[in-house]
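Here is the promised in-class demo. Please do not try to memorize the tokens; focus on the logic of going from shape to residues.
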């Protein structure tokens, strides 16, 4: 098993000192590093007039955390690549990989909010899916090419690199035959610097929802998937879709588990009642802030709600509806039982915990993480190890 943690910076009051909020993220990163977590994940959001998502540059935050930690990997979940110039992004990611000693995991996303796209790249408006996907796919293609090829060129519908017609910069003529067309002297290849420490490039991921074409695309293109809050049955369905697409591309059976991670909102307290009392409102406020897709993202495959209930949950999700479907809330024993069932029913091997939401005081997050790392995960690891031994003996 591998564990990750998803952190964000938020302040609905819009009055807190930003440096204090950065310090809280650093503290969580150090806790995860010392507890043996595999990855610490950071998002990218812009212009939040709601005070809920206030980290505009996860690369800079990851560089800061890399300098303070020893072994934990730094994950972007996600860099919204539709809002970046692809070559600047390639340079920044490669530098971050070097600064972190090769500990970078690159999660990419298309973006959710029209507010962001309208101010950063209107051509990538997520409300226009076809245009948004077009920007995403070509940006991703340029990014991969720039990071993996020491000298590259790209000609697409949106980008052309090198820019056509370049031959000299003031007094400097390019004479290296690795970069020019010998007949015309025109620059026809580029290199971005630095080169990433991990070669050919850091691992790629995409944050996915119910879009199965994105899941299949990742499987076909050596990318992992990060899933937000699906039910157990839906997790199995997504993993099967990933596996089938991977096997069709590779032409062989997938022996290991699919490269997939699951995000779970998690809060551990002395009892289930305490967990709900302390963190229930904060997690539900966060889920309802992101409730534009409605209750369907918490449904099992083929499940349908009565029209009245669907309309009611579309206005406001309830803790009772979400809890058994997508939360890890409760006492250490409760959360342990949920993790054991989750692993047994899906085989998922990477879990990303999220225990901080707008409005929840930091000390409660710290206490939950203490209980998770000291009273839940060691017992869960022991259970998983025993299950592996039992399977081996049975075979």
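The designed amino acids, position by position:
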């Amino acid at each position: 098993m591998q564990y990750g943690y998803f952190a964000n910076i938020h302040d609905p009051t819009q009055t807190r000192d930003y440096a204090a909020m950065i310090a809280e993220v650093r503290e969580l990163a150090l806790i995860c590093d010392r507890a043996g977590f595999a990855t610490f994940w950071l998002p990218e959001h812009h212009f939040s007039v709601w005070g809920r998502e206030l980290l505009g540059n996860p690369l800079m935050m990851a560089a800061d955390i890399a300098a303070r930690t020893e072994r934990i990997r730094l994950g972007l979940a996600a860099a919204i690549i539709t809002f970046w110039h692809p070559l600047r992004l390639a340079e920044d990611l490669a530098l971050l990989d070097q600064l972190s000693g090769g500990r970078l995991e690159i999660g990419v996303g298309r973006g959710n909010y029209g507010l962001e796209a309208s101010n950063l790249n209107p051509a990538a408006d997520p409300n226009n899916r076809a245009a948004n996907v077009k920007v995403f796919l070509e940006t991703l293609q340029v990014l991969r090419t720039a990071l993996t090829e020491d000298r590259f060129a790209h000609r697409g519908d949106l980008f052309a690199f090198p820019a056509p017609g370049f031959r000299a910069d003031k007094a400097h003529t390019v004479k290296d035959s690795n970069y020019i067309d010998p007949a015309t002297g025109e620059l026809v290849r580029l290199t971005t610097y630095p080169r990433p420490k991990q070669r050919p490039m850091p691992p790629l991921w995409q944050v996915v929802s119910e879009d199965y074409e994105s899941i299949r695309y990742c499987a076909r293109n050596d990318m992992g998937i990060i899933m937000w809050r699906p039910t157990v049955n839906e997790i199995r369905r997504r993993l099967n879709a990933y596996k089938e697409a991977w096997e069709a591309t590779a032409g062989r059976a997938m022996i290991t588990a699919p490269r997939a991670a699951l995000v779970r909102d998690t809060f551990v307290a002395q009892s289930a009642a305490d967990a709900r009392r302390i963190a229930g409102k904060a997690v539900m406020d966060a889920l309802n802030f992101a409730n534009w897709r409605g209750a369907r993202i918490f449904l099992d495959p083929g499940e349908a709600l009565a029209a009245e209930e669907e309309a009611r949950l579309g206005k406001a999700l309830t803790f009772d509806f979400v809890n058994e479907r997508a939360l890890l809330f409760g006492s250490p024993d409760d959360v342990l039982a949920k993790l054991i069932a989750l692993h047994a029913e899906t085989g998922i091997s990477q879990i990303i915990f999220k225990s901080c939401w707008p409005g929840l005081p930091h000390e409660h997050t710290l206490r939950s993480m203490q209980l998770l790392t000291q009273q839940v995960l060691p017992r869960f690891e022991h259970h998983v190890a025993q299950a592996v031994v039992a399977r081996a003996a049975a075979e």
